[in-house]
Amino acid sequence: MLGVARAVVERDLLLALRRKSDVGIALLFFVIVTSLFPLGVGAEPNLLRAIAPGVIWVAALLASMLSLERLFAGDHADGTLEQMLLGGAPLGVIAAAKVLAHWLVAGLPVVLLSPLIALQYDLAPALYGTLALSLALGTPVLSMVGAIGAALTLGLRGGGMLLSLLVLPLYIPVLIMGAGSVELASSGLSPAGQLLLLAAALVGAAAFAPWAIAAALRISME
Amino acid sequence: MTTAIKWFWYASPQTFFPLAGKIAGWCAPAAAVLAAIGLYIGFFVAPTDAQQGEAYRIIFIHVPAAWMSMFLYVVMAFWAAVGLAFNTRLSGMMASALAPTGALFTFIALWTGALWGKPTWGTYWVWDARLTSELILLFLYFGFMGLKASIEDERRADRAGAVLALVGVVNVPIIYFSVQWWNTLHQGASVSLTRAPSMAATMLAGMLVMALAFWLYSIAAAMVRVRCLILERAR
Amino acid sequence: MLAQSRAQVPSNGHPKFSLEAAGLACVRGRRTLFRDLSFALAPGELVRIAGDNGSGKTSLLRILCGLLAPAAGEVRWNGEPIGELGEAYAAELLYLGHAPALKDDLTAAENLRFARRIAGDDADQQAVREALAELGLPDPDMPVKKLSQGQRRRVALARLALPRPPVLWLLDEPFAALDPGAARRVEALIQAHLGAGGAVAYTTHQPSGLDAGVTRVVALGEGGAPGGGA
Hints:
- The structure holds 3 protein chains of 3 kinds.
- By secondary structure, chain A is an all-alpha fold.
- Chain A is built from 8 helices and no strands.
- Helix content of chain B is 81%, strand content 0%.
- In chain C, helix 5 packs across helix 6.
- Chain C is globular, with a radius of gyration of 17 Å.
- The interface between A and C is medium-sized, with 27 and 33 residues.
């Protein structure tokens, strides 16, 4: 079973390596969106410092959602997804492996890039750690919950927009907990509570989302 | 054993069709009567509130609508789960039939909340915990209806919608509590819009009667819609 | 772990297994493609599923794989419904669908190796290259996007040439887009597999060199109960 999971992760990472532009574009989107806000609301430092956690989190959310469309679509189109349904491991395991590969390629770079964006917003350096940690805990949850939506909307016309409608409301608690943790830290309070909630959400999603993704994939592939 | 057979007997769309008609025929007038009573209590019998004056009376519609919006989502998810587990077509149709009514009540809750806000707090929209949760719930309903509408194949539509409804119903409490917390985090001087005045017995009675009226209306509307769906699918 | 528990096809001796389709019905959209379809498949048997385009050949094959739930009836593997067997059944079969199931950005060799690994088995570099050579592909390290249609089909079919394949082969139009030389190679692989005690069910709407050895023809037609006899 682990062998199959490893094969799936290796394959997806190899594919991402061979198509670096896909990866780069998602990351670029994240950076561009965060650059838009100061242009929209003005560059007053106090304002930017106040909205930084929320803006960075919303941008991470949007970037995650945009890259989710491609999670299953490619495999669905060329028939490899069907082979995975007939694979040597439970579909939930294979789905989790794909989500992991997706996070490594789309989510992890966002986590690593976040201090840079925080710098642009003049966020206090002491908060970088909390921000990165909240993103590190939250973006995998976004990937997993989003994958359920991606599986449900597989092959539908209007897929991308429909996926957003389905998935963004479910993202809201993660957004609140993630951005909220940084806000607490910036007011001198402890972010531990919200970070622990994010960790709990991560564990919960890791335990239950793969089965929902598998069920959704089977439904969409019939 | 006979009761089990009876359930699955009614799980067939053809047998359920006339039953649905009868239920609707009974619930609709009952709903109208109860609504009349409830509104009478709310607008004439219940005393004027010391702080909010007459404007507070809108809670007789706002609160029961909010209750219904959440209750119907749970019922919808229940029927969706039954459809997934037992592979019955009628359960999927029930879920589809309930969604628009649930969305309607969510919308009513949002509008009445806004109308309450204007005279009381001076602004139509306040990012209050309940209103924000209702807004997110509206998105969940639209997502469910949108997904079903986008899938041609009925069986796939029912089952995909069911998975979405179940994921949604698990998330509803999570969303509710995180929005509550978010509201306290950003609570400046603004007071909660939805802190209703301390309940006099008549006020509670009025809200309960309206809730019952809305519930009967929902049943009637769902039954009528299910009949339409049965006819559509039998084509 | 799963690989060892599969029914390996030994070089001598025939493993016992049986695939039964019982009362299958298929409804796609509003059309009943077939109903009341029953047949069985035993070691060494070759079943040809025939019919025009749109008659449900692919749907039947997918029902046999477990990818599609039938509107009625069930498929049984060694007496047990495949729904309950899950991956244990999937490990015993090799399904090649319409699409070649290849990633454009990987080489032929990489695609083949991943296909085996995802199915729960493995194949070393040597075996992969030999299988590709058997199907007449000159360069295993060529990225698939540079291959022609026919060559891609051959990469997909190379799975049949790997050692220790699963016992049951479900092939959807295996001869499509193949030139006569490649088609003969595939026929040879299928014959060898049958000889070693495997079973094959395939769909086609053209005649081939296998027709003489077919054990049973399942002819799908106008939506009624199809002919199930040989």
